[in-house]
Amino acid sequence: MNVFDVDSRLAFTSGVIATVVVAFGAVACVIAALLIPLSGFTFLFALSAMALLALAIWLGYQTYQLTHINYTLNRNAFIIHWGALREIVPMSDVKKVIPADEITDDLRLSRLPLPGWWFGTGSHPVLGKIRFYATEPPDRQIIVITSKCSYAIAPYDEEAFLDAFRMRLDMRPTQHVTYDRLLPGFATWRIWRDRTALVLLFLAIGLNLALFGMSATRFPAAPTQIALHFDARGSVDRLGEKSQLFVPPILGLFTLVISLIAGLVLYRKGETLAALMLWGGSAAMQLLFFVAALTLGFSLPS
């Protein structure tokens, strides 16, 4: 068995820098949200901070994976180790291996434009789908071509890899190996393939965010006291501080968190329908809280 290392220094460095920059951006948005008067801009800064934090976590994870990458080769299989991912390609499926500079002009890859970040799924008009597992640009990559998919890789010692690979192709496999793609545990969760569950969750989360956004936008123009309740004759019988505008979104967030946790527990136990009903009910509750927030907004006393 031969193990071929990958020079990931440039990719790792650029990943660390990008992660730090994005994390600082998230912190800056949090500071801005805390310093400015409460308004719609506060909500936008808070939303930006959450988005940047999620991006920083993703970048950090991808950067960490770059510390655990290599390619393994034997008579029976070619194995790509990319962080927690393993791609096992039977040698019997490999048609040939070529330098990528022979087809560079037609390669297509949507990727994050960071130095050394040449990984993802791309395509070629003749080869079809290509999975990129490289830290070098296409003119320094190698394409492993199979009948179902091709792989763009960049071993540190390109010549040694090509020699070893072609030698293995000339040999006959001694064992039958089946193709497999081993993903990290969280990536195999069933919920990622359940479109109904994802739609309900995103709907509930989106409505709750809209609730906070609407309340924050209306807060500056609201009087100190707002009407909270009306009697049977339509007269205001209860007033409250304008901070009460945030009661509906906070209650909505509380119900969202409870339903999310309970739904995930049910979903993992195989109670899919119960989980979907819970998440659908949560989305409906967000809508009711939205109506309540609108009522508060339109019932501000003069």
From TrEMBL:
InterPro entries: Bacterial_PH-related, DUF1648. Residues 70-168 form the Bacterial Pleckstrin homology domain. It comes from the Bacteria. The chain crosses the membrane at residues 12-36, 42-61, 197-216, 245-267, 274-300. The keyword Membrane applies. Keywords: Membrane, Transmembrane, Transmembrane helix. Pfam families: bPH_5 (PF10882), DUF1648 (PF07853). Residues 209-252 form the DUF1648 domain. This is DUF1648 domain-containing protein. It comes from Candidatus Thermofonsia Clade 3 bacterium.
